[in-house]
């Protein structure tokens, strides 16, 4: 498996998890059940699931009244996009055996 395929698969899975966590937490909030900690929601966003988490926020109308989510999730996504762009500009060549 190439590095690009692995990275894309990783990001896809993290975004699906981030999206799902927003839906699950919203469902638990309605039922007044045990909730997913906010730190967990942010960790999945930081580790590659920011787009899925952001989409999940607005699809499920969850955490949209908390300024730190409304500002934090897009900020994490922007930082990740900039990081990917900067890394892609590095003069590095990856060779495979």
Number of domains: 1
Multimeric state: single chain
Low-confidence parts lasting 5 or more residues at pLDDT below 50?
none
Mean pLDDT comes to 94
Which percent range describes the beta-strand content?
Answer: under 5%
Tally the helices. Answer: 3
The rounded Rg comes to: 16 Å
**Alpha carbon gap, first and last residue:** 12 Å
Helix percent band: over 70%
Largest sheet: none
Gross morphology is elongated
- N-to-C SSE series? HHH
The strand count comes to 0
Classification by helices and strands: mainly alpha
Descriptive key words:
single chain; 0% strand; 97 residues; mainly alpha; 3 helices; 74% helix
What does this structure look like?
With 97 residues, the protein is an all-alpha fold. The chain has one domain. Helix content is 74%, strand content 0%. The chain contains 3 helices and no strands. The chain has helices at 3-30, 38-59, 67-88. The mean pLDDT is 94.
Set down the secondary structure blueprint.
Elements: H1 3-30, H2 38-59, H3 67-88
What is this structure, in a nutshell?
By secondary structure, the chain is mainly α. The chain has helices at 3-30, 38-59, 67-88.
């Amino acid at each position: 498996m190439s590095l690009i395929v692995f990275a894309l698969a990783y990001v896809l899975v993290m975004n699906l998890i981030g999206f799902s966590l927003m839906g699950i937490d919203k469902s638990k909030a309605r039922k007044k059940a045990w909730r997913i900690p906010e730190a967990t929601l942010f960790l999945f966003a930081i580790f590659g699931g920011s787009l899925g988490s952001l989409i999940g926020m607005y699809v499920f109308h969850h955490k949209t009244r908390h300024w730190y989510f409304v500002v934090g999730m897009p900020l994490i996504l922007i930082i990740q996009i900039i990081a990917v762009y900067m890394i892609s500009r590095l003069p590095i060549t990856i060779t495979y055996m």
